Amino acid sequence: MSQESTHGQYVSEPEHVSVHTVNTEGSSFTPPGDGGQQQNQPEPAGQPPAVPPPVVPPPVMPPLAIPSVAYEQMFPAMMAHYMQHMAQFMPMFQPPPPPQPQPRIVTFKTLKDNGAEEFRGDKMGEPQIALDWLEQMDRVLKNLRVPDADRSELASQMFRKGAYDWWKRIDQDPHTPKPWTWDRFDRAF
Predict the structure, then answer these.
(1) What pLDDT does residue 1 have?
(2) Does residue 2 have a pLDDT over 60?
(3) Domain ranges for the chain
(4) 3-class DSSP state for residue 16?
(5) pLDDT at residue 41 in the model
(6) What is the rounded distance in angstroms from the CA atom of residue 162 to the CA atom of residue 130?
């Protein structure tokens, strides 16, 4: 073939031209210097010869299909490993401690509003009145969830006149064991 291409341009050898009978515009053309195809070209003076890059084979991909038996055996181990890995990086979740119950403040008014009655101690000849008052007071204090250590002090707030005088004498007596418990209060009453 001549050194003029079908487009009327001068192209140095080698050249690849496909001749088609119908349409020459669609011919395949390999430009010079493409793909390391150049041959017999003189090396420029003073430069080392060009070394083609090394050919690196594509990586070998493992098969995508894992046998179901192997997968079923590996899955629990993989999950265990994953969970251990996550545990190292995630702080352990510690739920906050439950809120401490606020101490209930029981006042004289609270006792009265919940059914406690004052005790005067003026009818000492009728012990059933004192026993009824003590039983009612015990029920009110339990309903209010008053701790045992606080019950005798709250019950004594309901004393009036002779009952209050009795309470002062017995509470100030050095032979009376302290602190008061509800059982001691019940026996002393």
Answers:
(1) 47
(2) no
(3) 115-188
(4) strand
(5) 59
(6) 13
Q: How far apart are CA 158 and CA 136, in angstroms?
A: 12
For the chain, helix, strand, coil in percent to 5 are: 40, 5, 55
Radius of gyration of the chain (CA): 53
Crossing angle of helices 127-143 and 148-156, in 10° steps, is 130
Q: What type of residue is 125?
A: G
In the chain the first and final C-alpha atoms are separated, in Å, by 135
Q: Specify the pTM.
A: 0.45
Burial annotation 125-137 (CB, 10 A radius, 16+ → b, else e)? eeeeeeeebeeeb
pLDDT in tens, 25-62: 555 555 555 454 555 555 566 677 777 888 888 877 76
